[in-house]
């Protein structure tokens, strides 16, 4: 089946080939010649994503709870934990086999179960993140208009929504051309954003010395210091987990596991930490939470306006990553209807909900912490289940042909294409999270200051998945958990 499909795929990677298709835009495993990113290519993409305005907003959210010194510690700790975990899964399975990350999840949840995960993560979360980024774009350009033309436009009015809609439209235009366009845009934006981060840092320290900055209270100084520090750590763990829906499909385009793993530390960790720390400093120094309001007080009107324009368009690069990962997932796991849908139409399908959400700017933009929690409540247990399944239970080996076979013929068929025990493990992890940190009210429990929420959710889900699989699934011979003979495993890989 796979060989026949691949034989029909005559492509030029990154652009339409003779068949009018692009190997990077469908769900089949990519062979080495179809991988388009090496270490530095993928690093540039990751840095371009990490230093978008959401990193500044992350820093401002942390500054709400803690001062400069604790903020640095919480950002380093939080991102180190979650970036390491998402670098393991879904990055390494996708890079090892060249598979789309939700195709890989068929081994865990079954073909139909993985489709449920795909729809939730690729549509709802991608649309919500795209809307947040687009609204940031709108906020920034409204500030530009206010300062250039001497007007005062509402930050919650129609102007922000319409400008956000422009960001969504620009993202559609670039995404419709495929992943090489994503790489090209990030190559331009990433170095400029790094310069802006350095510039903000310099301007902050021209206004405040380190001792003055370190002595500034958090934006909300009334909270319990220990609980606030743990909330800040949780915000940053959740911020790192927020990359999970993207990085697997991006890592699929890399030339191997090393090129998929280490660039995450340059981009998702180092660049995110740097941008978030600078965001903390700016928020504390100016006593302002909204990153789009920092540039002009720091740099003056001319340089501030230029910086806002660049940062605004950087948000478009982050929307591109969301859109690309979601489109490949829908193309591969959405059944015959979506598989036959033209790529530009699929892009419109995923960005359509974001185009609606931008007309509710306050509800989306002003609830950043809660939004991160709604992501982490699912991603922390999902990541745990995937890591335990791939690295511990399967020893890093997948039967690639079975990922593409119908449920009745696949070793990953489980029960009607659904592994209910994997979903039960995720649900237990999500319930653990909600008990420790209410994602609606964002009020922590009495235990939270000693545990966080994401880490216990991860541990509960991963442990339960291992126990349920060993107790119920493996004894029934389901899920393909019996190890392949060494020769057979080699043949399995060589045929792909």
Automatic annotation (TrEMBL):
Give GO terms: molecular function aspect only: nucleobase transmembrane transporter activity
What InterPro entries does UniProt report for this protein, alphabetically? Pur-cyt_permease, Uracil/uridine/allantoin_perm
Please give, as recorded in its UniProt entry, the membrane topology of this protein.
Answer: Multi-pass membrane protein
Any one Pfam family here would be Transp_cyt_pur
- TM stretches of this protein: 44-66, 72-95, 116-137, 157-176, 188-206, 226-244, 265-288, 294-320, 341-365, 371-393, 414-435, 447-468
Tell me the keywords, alphabetical order. Membrane, Transmembrane, Transmembrane helix
Q: Where is the signal peptide?
A: none
Q: Which Gene Ontology CC terms are recorded?
A: plasma membrane
* Principal place of residence: membrane
Q: Which domain of life is it from?
A: Bacteria
Q: Matching Gene3D superfamilies, A to Z?
A: Hydantoin permease
Q: Where in the cell is it found?
A: Membrane
Q: Which PANTHER family match?
A: NCS1 FAMILY PURINE/PYRIMIDINE TRANSPORTER, PURINE-URACIL PERMEASE NCS1
Tell me which family the UniProt entry assigns to this protein.
Belongs to the purine-cytosine permease (2.A.39) family.
Q: What name goes with this protein? A: Nucleobase:cation symporter-1, NCS1 family
UniProt source species: Rhodococcus koreensis
